[in-house]
Structures are given as C-alpha cells and as structure tokens.
Amino acid sequence: MIDRYRRAERLHMSRHDQLVFRALVTPHWEGDSFWYKVNTPEGPEFVRVWPEKRERQVIADPGAEEAPPPMITGLVTSPDGRYAVGVEGENLTVNGTPVTADGVAGWGYGLPSDQSRMPVVARQQGLRTPPLVVFAPGGRRFVTCRVDQRHVPTLTLTQSCPPGAGQPRPLVHTMHYEMPGDEPPTITHLILDAETGERVDVDIEPLTFTHDAPLGVERVWWSDDDTLWLLYSTRGYKSARLYRIDARTGAACVVLEETAETIMHYSPTVIDFPLVRTFGDEVLWFSERDGWGHLYLYRDGELVCQVTRGEWLVRAIVHLDEERRELYFLAGGHDPNPYHRGLFRVGLDGTGLTRLTPEQADHDVTASPDGRWFVDTYATPAEPPVTVLRDRDGTVVLELERADIRRLLEAGWRAPEPFTVKAADGVTDVHGLLYLPGDFDPSASYPILDSVYNGGQLPRLARLNLRGYPVDPYLLDQAAGAPMFAQLGLAVVVLDGRGTPYRSKAFHDAGYGDPTLRVGLADHVAALTQLAADRPYLDLGRVGIAGHSGGGTATAAALLHHPGVFHVGVASAGNYETAGYYALWGETYGGPPPRDYDQWSLVPHAAGLKGKLLLLCGEMDDNTHPTLTLRLVDALIRADKDFDMLMVPGAAHGYLHAESHVLRRQWDYLVRHLLGEEPPTGFTLTLEG
Questions:
Q1: Does residue 296 fall inside a structural domain?
Q2: Total structural domains within the chain
Q3: Vertex 180, ends 175 and 184: CA angle to 5°?
Q4: Where would I find the Peptidase S9 prolyl oligopeptidase catalytic domain in this sequence (predicted)?
C-alpha cells in the first residue's frame, strides 16, 4: 500500500510543472510579432514568433516584468500608469489623495460586498482587496461604485487558534453575508476624473445584487471616453438589462432587456464573463431563447438578426472584426464530445458560418489584436496539448509547441477513457471520463470512486479557464486530482449530469428549482450501472463518492438519497442547507423569493445515513461557513448515526497549511472503507509549491 501512496503522491496537481512541459502558451503581442514563455525539463524557455514570416525562434528572456497584480498592491492603475486608485478605510484615493470623504462602515466606495471579497481568504493568503474600478480609454475618467450592505445580516466566525504565541483566547470575525430571502446589498455607480476629482453620479436607482458586483465580473465597460455600458442581472438572474450611460452627465437609459422563466444567462454560466459586445449603435447579445446559447445582433435596440443558430452553443467571443463584419468565436456541441470547443467564423448578418479548426479536440484560442492570427492550443483526453498558429481562415501556418508528457507517463499516469451513457431519463446522453490506475489489470476488481462536483455554474468535465486559472481534467485534473486517486487502486469516474452547464438550455434547466441537483445525481447512479454492465472490473458493491464545496453537497446527498448505491463518502466544505448558504446559489438555482429554501436541506434526511461518511470543513470558511457542516453533524448525532469528521482550525474554503494532512486523511478513509485495507502508518504526504 505504501507504493500506491507514493504513486498517488507523484501525480498530485502541485507537481504539474515537473511532469508536463510545453503545454501552456500565453502570447504577448508586440507589433507584428509575439513572444511567450514555456516550461521545459531544462527550465523556462522564451520564444518569439513572426507570423508573417512563419518564423519561430528561441530568444533570451525579454525581461518584460509584469506589474504586481492589484490583489497584491491593492491598487488599480490607469492604462498610462499616471493614476493609481486605492481604498483607505471606506474611501477612495487617487495617487494617495482622498477623492471621496463620506464613506462609512458597510457603505464604502470601491469595495465589493463582504461575501464577494471573502475577507478571511484574502487575509490568509496575504492579499489585499483592490477597488472596483474601470478606466476610460483616455485614462483620466474611471467608473467605480458604492456598495451599501449596512442592512445585510452578519455572519460570525470564530478563530480558535490565532497566529502567534500566547493567544489562548479565540478571535471573532464578523462579515455581512446574505442568505436566500435576505435583503441583499445595493450598489450605485459614479464616475470620477482622476485629474480634477470631478464626480458624476450615474442616474440609475440603487441596484440589488448578490455576491458579484457588476464591476467585478466585466459587466461594466467603456466604448469611448464619454460612453459607458452596464450589464445588470436582476435578483435570481431572471432578467438581464443593458444600460447605456453618458459619462459627462450620468444620464442612463435601458437599451436592451430580456427575461427568462428560469435563468436569463448572458454567457453560458453565471460565472463566465458576459458574451455581450457593443460597437457604434449595435449590440451583440447572448441569449438562450431558442433553447441554445446563441448571439443576436441589435441596432438601436431593435433586433436585426440571429447571428448564430443550431443545436450547439457559443462558448466565447474570440474576436469581433467590425470593418469586415465578421465574428470569430468558440462553440461547443459540434464534436461527439459536446464539451469540446472549436473556432468558428460567421458574418454579422448570420451568413457564412465556417469551422476553422477541423480537429476533433477541445480548442482554447486567443486572437492577435488585429484579428489576423490565432494561437490555438488543442487537446483530447488521449492526445496531449498541441499549440499552433492559424491565420484567419484556420490554416495552420506554424506549429509552436507539442506537449512533452514523458515524465508524466513515467510517474504512472494513464490517459482517462471518455464514455457516453444515458441519463436517468433513458434518453439524454451524458458524458464522462474514467480514470484507471497506472498498473490497471482488467482481470482484477476495482472499487469505484465518483469524483463529483455537480454544480449548476461549473462543469466537472470541461477544460476551461476559470477567471485566469486553467483547469484541465485531461492531465492531472487540477479540480480534484482524479488520476491521483486512481493510483490508490480505484476506478475514478468524472461525469456531468443534467443541471450542469455547457449543454442545451433544457439540459441546464433540468436542475432549476433543485439547487442540490438531485436530478443530476440520479444521472450519476444511472451512469455507474451502465459502466459496470460492460466493464466487469468495476465493482458496484464498493462505490464511493468524494467532492469539495458543491461536490461536498453532492457527496452527502448521494449517501442520504441513494444509500443502496453509494457506500463511502468524503464530503468537503459542502453547502448542506440551501437556506443558510449564499443567496446567489439558492436564489439563482432555486428561484428568487418568496421560496421555501428549507426544502432543499439535507439535514432532515440525516437519519437515512447507512454508509461511511467523512465530513471535512475549515473553521474559518467564509464561503460554505462551518455552521452548514455543524448543523448536519447535529442532525446525525440526534439520529445516533456513526460518522467521521475533521474540522481544520484556521482554514477557510481551502485547507492551506493543512492541505497535505487533509488529503492524506481522505486517502486513508477511502483505502480503509473502499479497498478494505489498512493505510500505511507514518506516511507523510509531501506537496510541491
């Protein structure tokens, strides 16, 4: 068993940069060329590319020092570097000089709500909260906001082990935290001149919001120094509304508004940046009104045409060429794997749809500033990433990189096996990946581990860039480390059932009114049965499930609602009571108030526990706060149920200093209760980085 632990340790996601090389390319354009940095077994390598010449050359370090990010400095700087906006107390400063003076606690300038900024996480990681600021193209004016959360109920967290010696008394931390049905924060916007301090208040009534303020997720932008746009979602994401604002006067008008019976998305998920673009008197607008996520062109508020259509969805806008009246975008749903993205071109009149990436693979594409060139990194579960340079017709003009995974293979990694099965309805296709141990023996019998997330806003299966953080389930699976768990001797299943994103609206809406996604969990049950039917090495008598956050919720729900299927669960930081979690979650996926949010609680079902359950949580988690776990614990105790629990002092939504201990405890639990073996004694898990 100690050898299995060592093999699993070698495939921990922290070792990615030691095992995978030449897989990630981020181009930095400078005129008619660009450079990028890749990691190699010998160390970092810098490459410059001249697209017109079809030339690629290894160069010395260009010495381009990136400015420290705002999360480190606490400042947002103008494009020309002349002005730096910060926050002192509850007021804004420009180059250190106050430009507002009436900010008060709970009603300050420039800062997001407490729930959005997650102050405990920020403090633990040594981060500062920069102001919510977007500068106009000219660099003098900027738009910011004022958030009023004085009326929002508070959440108290107790830190039992404060840092430093001689601190026997716990510390108490209090933050505003809106739950479903609470009165949410409100936000107003204002425009300031960084040079003169002149202020213009935007003439829009205070807007309610939960969690993400529009300025924090690219829903406020400038088209020129005098024109500002604001994209707003009403409570529960029932409507999307686009405002045009005159920055000189603050006058605002609604240009477009659309409402949906379930969720009115303006991008494939509520956490994706919006797929709305404004240019001149035209607006490119994302909607699922025909059952799929497509783009529509409006002029002066009137519909001109549907630009994209079909049983597939737009995933991202790569480049909008106003002069040529062409749009380049990523779409999913054309390959047998619906989560694979491809690059397409279409005219803004909806004609001339052309696929530019013929490979059946997932393509992650960025464009040059002028839209003439595209850097495309594509991969499949069986084929490591390849990065190429394409022209605007999709022709590959130069191969840039081909991932080197020799060390990954030497470490025991085995490519995951894609599969397609039917959902619990017997009709809908659902897709997944099966990870097997590196020393897999088809004549042996393997316990199954369902590595679950099951959230309405985030898939488990797709490769994506989560607000700057790349997530790739095909290699080391940064989201949950499925190959690592497989090395313990488990067959690990990753699946996205109904209710999860990046499919049709009907597929996503199957989970509406069901924030714990019981319908999606039923698809997991159906999938396991079908997989085992033609894979005799999968043992349905030994099935486990594990997940973090929304995956923790799904894990507990699986043991409580499907005790005959799932026998062992490791539930980490779950939101087991919708009524006590983020208003964003319950009101978006359960519906805005009035609603009975208690109906989705797992607490009343605690008496149904039959399997082995390990509950994990952080004492200082300001996302899924520990009360959510403790209320489930209280119900289990009252029902006299046996379970296991680990609460980590001082930890927030991630376990930080305790991560290796928490992970090792998960391994031990699964090995003991799924494999029926004793874990190795004295093993210390070492993480890199």
A1: no
A2: 1
A3: 55
A4: 483-674
pLDDT band at residue 415 using 50, 70 and 90 as cut-offs? very high
Residue 273 belongs to some domain of the structure: no
Token pair 């694979």: residue: 340
Asked if 485 contacts 492 with a C-beta cutoff of 8 angstroms, the reply is yes
CA–CA distance, 235 with 92 (Å, rounded to integer): 28
Q: Is-contact 36 20, C-beta < 8 A?
A: no
At 118 the pLDDT is 77
How far does CA 90 lie from the centroid of its chain?
A: 29
**Beta bridge pairs of residue 431:** 420, 496
Q: Which pLDDT value is given to residue 165?
A: 63
The pair of three-digit structure tokens given for residue 483, joined into one six-digit string: 């190959």
Residue from 35, 28, 130, 32 nearest 73 by CA: 130
Residue 260 within any structural domain of the chain? no
- Do 640 and 669 meet the contact criterion of CB atoms below 8 Å apart? no
Other CB atoms within 10 Å distance of the CB of residue 551: 26
Q: Per-residue confidence at 467, pLDDT binned at 50, 70, 90?
A: low
Identify the domain containing residue 13 by its residue range. Answer: 2-17+407-675
Query: Residues 6 or more apart from 79 whose CB is under 8 A from it?
Result: 135, 137, 139
Amino acid at site 443: S
Amino acid at 278: T
Compute CA distances 557 → 237, 304, 425, 516, whole Å: 26, 46, 19, 8
Cα(47)–Cα(40) distance, integer angstroms: 12
> In this structure, what CATH number is given to the domain that contains residue 571?
3.40.50.1820
Contacts of 350 (CB under 8 A, 6+ apart): 297, 305, 306, 307, 308, 309
Q: Which long-range contacts (CB under 8 A, 24 or more apart) does 518-523 make?
A: 518/557, 518/561, 519/424, 520/454, 520/496, 520/554, 521/454, 521/497, 521/554, 521/557, 521/558, 521/561, 521/562, 522/423, 522/424, 522/497, 523/423, 523/424, 523/428, 523/430, 523/495, 523/497, 523/498
Query: pLDDT band for position 516 (50/70/90)?
Result: confident
Cα 561 to Cα 541: distance, rounded to the nearest angstrom: 17
* Beta bridge partner(s), residue 527: none
In a domain, 522, yes or no: yes
Q: What pLDDT does residue 86 have?
A: 96
Contact 44, 50 (CB under 8 A): no
Residue-level length of the chain:
689
For 582, list phi and psi in degrees, rounded to 5: -50, 135
